[in-house]
Amino acid sequence: MAAAIASGLNKAQQATQSVSSKDKKIVDVSRDTVDAHSHEPQTTDHGVRIENPDNWLKVADGRKTGPSLLEDQIAREKIHRFDHERIPERVVHARGTGAFGNFTLYESAEDVSHAGILTDTSRNTPVFIRFSTVQGSRGSADTVRDVRGFAVKFYTDEGNWDIVGNNIPVFFIQDSIKFPDFVHAVKPEPHNEVPQAQTAHNNFWDFVYLHPEATHMFMWAMSDRAIPRSYRMMQGFGVNTYTLINKEGKRHFVKFHFIPNLGVHSLVWDEALKLAGQDPDFHRKDLMEAIDSGAYPQWDFAIQTIPEEKEHDFDFDILDATKVWPEDLVPLRRIGKLELNRNVDEFFPQTEQAAFCTSHIVPGIDFSDDPLLQGRNFSYFDTQISRLGINWEELPINRPVCPMMNFNRDGAMRHRISKGTVNYWPNRFEALPPAKAEEGAFTSYPEKISGIKKRALSEKFRDHHTQAQMFYNSMSEHEKAHIKKALTFELDHCDDPIVYERLAGTRLAEIDLNLAQQVAELVGAPIPQKQLMPNPGHRAKGLSQTEFPPEKPTIASRRIAILIGDGYDQVAFTGMKMAIKAAGALPFVIGTKRSPIYAQGQSPENSKGVIADHMYDGQRSTMFDATFIPGGSHVTALSKNGQLRFWIVESFGHLKAIGATGEACDLVNQVLGKVLDIRLATPTSTECVEWYGVVTAGSTKPESFKESFQIAKAAKDFVGQFFYQIAQHRNYQRELDGLSAALDW
Length: 745
Ligand code: HEM
Prior knowledge:
This protein is of the alpha+beta class. The chain is about 30% helix and about 15% strand. The longest helix has 18 residues, at about 370-390. The termini are far apart. The site of protoporphyrin IX containing FE has 29 residues, from strand 4, strand 5, strand 6 and helix 11. One of its GO terms (biological process) is cellular response to hydrogen peroxide. Its cofactor is heme.
């Protein structure tokens, strides 16, 4: 019997090894995947072919419809199944979306870890990622101000490893016992279930005031990090401190980071608010669209490590999740690459049922005494039981790709059938023996621990303002302005004076007096007169997201709207569309209608016209990164259309690049020049003019749109200039110089 079981195990191992050249997760999941487009007949769940799925069995004749019969087991099955389609949504991070990809190493980290995934540079490890918001329910909008979840499941050869992180490197609380209070406070208030997916309410700000440890994190949550442009343009952080163990048994503390190749970019607040209504699925669609179009999102994977003996060398406690490890003290080491390249086939089984656990680690990685992590290690497994049931790890999305064998048994919805006569260890067959460390078994680091049993944290956990100040000091000018605006927006939504008065008058005055005074005045709190905690002006590298541009300016995967109506300039239109595609971006033709639109000089007699992707009323400028308007006689009609004029104003207000050629320069001038002292090319001039990210060129020729453009600041040609402005993501100078505020949008 032992031999039989061992040979079963071997077969499973061989099966896994024989597919090593392919993505093991694809192979693994394929045995549970069916083709819903097949032309095989429909059946009941017990496999009987169905004759008529559209009519309930009735007493009826040609003239009269009589009662429906309870006997109809086929109809009953269909309704039963429907009645039970929903499972509880996650208590937090309920709104999310996922994708598959791969992880590879640039270099081995064997000096700090013996984990296969961190040392074997020949491996290609399948991954699944779920991005999420924290506060909202499953149907809430994507673009709300919130922390984003960044949960990664690595299907390694030694078992699943989950990094259940966020896009912000610190957290609101230090000890996990506070998590239920925190989540209750951040979620809609209990008496009226309002507001949905927002921190802008009394209870959240009351909680963070009463927990000074939340100060650092709320400053991050008020920054642009909380309104990302895309999941593809955010950093990911493991947040908690884990440990790495190398072959010699030496231990390092570690923080995990993911840095996006496209740079770290955000929406502007007005845009985020509008998108929440105009396109609540903005982020999930953006991710799917990028993957479908081959613009695979990529991140560098980096580690920060501290040798065990240096644990106490810092002013802060390195186990405190409300602190970053400043990069100037602990450098980042980029060791790997994560790429997302495959969308899920079906949302529910692959994303809704995906379940992560901070306690899922593999040999070579271990926990630390981080008090937030310790509680999380209990919480995730526990919550999966209530959401999915005790056999949740058997679900295809959750199961490992390496052999998995043990004597855990039974429970609701057990799927696996284990052959054999024993289900315990030790047994007389020596079936399923444990392994030794040298055979790949997980062994805990033999840490020596002593102390006094008490409900307390070490003293260094008590400094709550130093890093909050450092974060604010490190922001660029426009980031500081956005934090101020976010705080005033949020506190304006609090109607209990004790909440906004204490927050603005005390907590903010501990960070930065100037900020506190401005916010207090705007929200109607007494204006604080002195800085309550000295701010020595420390800054740190890597906190401002302006430090994370892409390596080279790129517009890859950016959504660019081309506005046209009958009479557009065909040369500029076609040339720009081709150039956008050549640069790896996505052109969207937004027309005055979605039936044929004809270029200047064309008509139904000599042309089929162009079919726009959308008509302007179905879309908004918020859904695009930039707008281009070709010249041509269509400008006369466009300039009479208030919605299209607003499109240009709003794009300017949201700091986006705008490009126009020929007669369209006049349109831009008409719209923006009324209020601003704008500098543009004239429709007849040959020069290309760039003014605060508005790029215009008068006359253009086919060669103006050649594919050999260079996206660079010094570019002289229209395409190079326009694309460079798009690559800058936004023109924040417009805002700093008061231009965007001068327009009505
Ligand atoms: C460092 C701080 C934390 C981070 C970065 C974090 C991150 C996350 C993420 C990314 C998810 C969503 C996972 C998914 O996509 O399915 C999640 C869910 C969850 N978190 Fe946390 N969390 C933190 C703290 C905590 C704490 C302290 C607790 C409880 C003690 C907790 C309990 C939960 C629960 C219950 C879920 C729902 C899981 C599910 O139903 O699948 N989290 N968290």
